[in-house]
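quick one, 103 residues, struct below
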Amino acid sequence: MSDVYFDGKVIGRIEGDTFITTRRPEHFFKKYAGFGISEKVLSQLESNRVNKIEIIYYGIKGIRKYETTVIAYRKSPNVHVDKENDKQKFVPIIYTRETKEIV
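---
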């Protein structure tokens, strides 16, 4: 297991070939109906041979897990550049595998 950093903060961890990260309602990007991951982070994941992404979402209606892949993020046409000039990619949650109510 190893931590993944972005801008000096731990944003998740790698377990085997899976990146596990947490998100809250303020991280949900309505325009693309999903959660962003920086292209810089995607590059880190690729260099660590990560294939899968698990997003643990602590939402208003409970905790959910969304599973997808690094490839899905790379292929996604949904891109947003934030005010810090960070380019993020988005996979809409309808294209992920969702596990409702996890503990």
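The radius of gyration is 13 Å.
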